[in-house]
TrEMBL record:
An example Gene Ontology molecular-function term: RNA-directed DNA polymerase activity
Similarity section: Belongs to the bacterial reverse transcriptase family.
Keywords: Nucleotidyltransferase, RNA-directed DNA polymerase, Transferase
Superkingdom assignment: Bacteria
InterPro entries noted in UniProt: DNA/RNA_pol_sf, Group_II_RT_mat, GrpII_Intron_Splice-Mob/Def, Mat_intron_G2, RT_dom
Protein name: Retron-type reverse transcriptase
Pfam family, one: RVT_1
Domain spans labelled Reverse transcriptase: 111-351
Amino acid sequence: MVPLETEGQHNPWSREGTLLCSRNRRVEDQGIAMSLTTPETIRTLQRKLYTKAKQEPAYRFYALYDKVYREDILRHAWNLVRSNGGSPGSDGVSFEAIEQGEGVEGFLKGLAEELREKRYRAQPVRRAMIPKGDGRERPLGIPTIRDRVVQMAVKLVIEPIFEADFTPHSYGFRPQRSAHDAIDDIANALWAGHTHVIDADLSSYFDTIPHANLMTVVAERMTDGAILALLKQWLKAPIIGVDDQGKRRTVGGGKANRVGTPQGGVISPLLSNLYLHLLDRIWDRHRLKDKLGAHIVRYADDFVVLCKQGVEEPLKVVRHVTDRLGLTLNETKTHVVDAKETGFHFLGFTLQMSQGAKTGKWYPNVRPSDKAVAKITAKVTDLTRRELTCIPLDDVVGSVNRSLRGWAGYFHFRNSSLAMSKVRNHAEQRLRIHLRKRHKVKNWKAGYAKFPSRDLYDRHGLHPLPKGPGWKTAHAMV
């Protein structure tokens, strides 16, 4: 029997869990926010699938495809994809073009017919290059809106099944779980004495997932051939990029492609999470936390192993499992640290064991990383540069506030006071400099007199960053 809590607090598909997930979505428009609340008919289906999967770990689901093109599921899938926004895919069709052309009703009706008659075919994925912090670029695959809606519909149906199998120490892209939950788990392990940390990094994980192995993992839980065929279509979809001459051409994917799931697709996080679940499953089934004193915490493809009895054996297990999965550890970025001597980085935070100034007792110090602080201060500097004095001040302050609000919403957590102070001081200084340039006040001292800190907030509307610690901050989704 499934414990009663699977129908309540610990079941992410219960009424309370679904509503919590809806509240965690950051949506400006109240009308859209209401539409993101999962309809009762879908929630009931998800609850039944989750409970069945939890009760029977070996059960393989065989009749799921007809749920994908249900009107309520396709409608909710559209609402979710629409709220996420994003640019058009390879066909150039935008949300506005759909709404102003055939209309949402016509669009969803046509999509349902294609799926019902099994005429649906995935379109090529548009490649976009996203700058990384180290100066390199990361490829992002952008499916068409049509494909994103179908992927979301499939996700609504199959995610509860796999969620029933995922382990407690996996946090990435899961309902009712966040990056902050993962950080808390790590901090608790550090406090319990697991202070030798394997900070692991996988080389190009999304680009190297073997399709055959991945589909084998999916097939452990479902035998519905139509669902499996959809997944294969998305894995094999051609990837369209732009060459040096500005011409579109195929740069990846296709029927011959045997590895990789492009980042950017709605279904990709679930599939990538599912494949690395094999590492979690091995860790649990062999009780490695008890046998080796090693606790693993994973957020998607980022994971750390916190060790209490030495790192040699746990690291050997990690290497063995990733090798069997056809994945590669990035040896230059994978390293072992003693958290009592130095910090390590995870999900934008720096974690380290520190001693209290008054008590001398060790505690897990969790703070925004220097890189995270440098990134937001550079952003604020860019948003307040001299060239922007010609645009309305409210627009400048509004842009700064959006960046500050988003940054603080994530990083105001645990021991964040010092970092908040640094960012707050920088924001005040940059806005004051901007106002001096705008009003041609050359003297620093005169600038402080004319634009005191109180006026920056009360008169000009600068967003005030929190001054206290982030212990009571609600866990935000990333």
